[in-house]
Amino acid sequence: MNLPSVDMLSGIQPTGRLHLGNYLGAVREWVKIQENENLFVCLVDYHALTAAPLPDSLRAQTRSLLVDLLACGLDPEESVLFCQSDLPEHIELFWILSCVARFGEMARMTQFKDKGGGTDTESVGLGVLNYPVLQAADILLYGPNKVPVGEDQAQHLELTRELLRRFNKRYTPLFQEVRAHIPQVGKVLSLNQPSRKMSKSDPTGCVFIDEEAESLLKKVKRAVTDSGQGALSPGVLNLLGILASFNAEEGKKAHKEAEGGQLRYGDLKVAVAGVLEDALSGIREEKRAWLNRPDRVEEILQEGAKAARRIAQPRLAAIRDVVGLKGYPR
Q: Is 221 a catalytic residue?
């Protein structure tokens, strides 16, 4: 069956300001991808409900996330940017796939076990258990050839593959295999807790993409560098990785000096703060400009929903048909 599809699809939760880990791990890669691929980026606000945000906060964060993405360089003329909840098709396919998924495989998912503290899952929301099925629906609704994912999402993508194979076997070969596109970027760790990923829940160790110059410099200068493990401690490696992400040559040189014990932490921090300010100053300016265009921001979401619907509706109509549901509502 010849169904419409997209080249590449990715999603991101509206949970607050974008930070450096989001930018280097995903958003910067999307900006490159949109130059040559048909890229769809979904603001997954249904997924955000698992954290029980306040209604006004969720609405505001969804618009804020779009502004951040635009400021980082995603172009609505090149990419399709849309909000998950603007298309109820996501939820319908989620239910159909839930009837294909199995409890055991969902309970074994790392995210569910983490949220339940390993054993105590009684108080974990059902949405956390089913989260990967909704993620599979997000993907299969658009039939992308590739899905950019980080290493921590690889298990969820494998579940998507398992569900599509099971669906195809039970009904008809409707879904095509989905490949992972894994950016070659190391994890960006917290500046003050380099054993953990950078997270907005730890704002003192997190560099936001709209971080002002003074605050940026202060955070980098306070970054942990010595954990009693020698020159190449996790904190030093984190700073070296950030430096290399923006200036490969300078990062390589600094890494060599660190291995030889010739690198001064103060010099490394100045270099990191410098490349970050060079990169983020433009994003800050773009964000200010987009914040002054709220009508255009809303228009982009409406245009994105229309474009997404042109892919999602015929695909869901075909899915409904093969599982035996009545005709797709028009």
A: no
Catalytic annotation present for 256? no
Q: Which of 115, 146, 269, 287 is catalytic?
A: 115
Pick the catalytic residue: 113, 197, 221, 253?
197
State residue 2's pLDDT score.
Answer: 85
Q: What is the pLDDT of residue 4?
A: 95
Q: How do residues 64-76 score in pLDDT, each as one tens digit?
A: 999 999 999 999 9
pLDDT tens, position by position, 140-195: 999 999 998 776 677 888 999 999 999 999 999 999 999 888 777 778 999 999 98
Catalytic, 219? Answer no
Confidence of residue 120 (pLDDT cuts 50, 70, 90): low
| Domains of the chain, start order | 8-185+294-323 (3.40.50.620), 203-289 (1.10.240.10)
Q: Edge to edge, what strands does the sheet with 8-12 contain? A: 79-83, 39-43, 8-12, 146-148, 179-181
- pTM of the complete model: 0.93
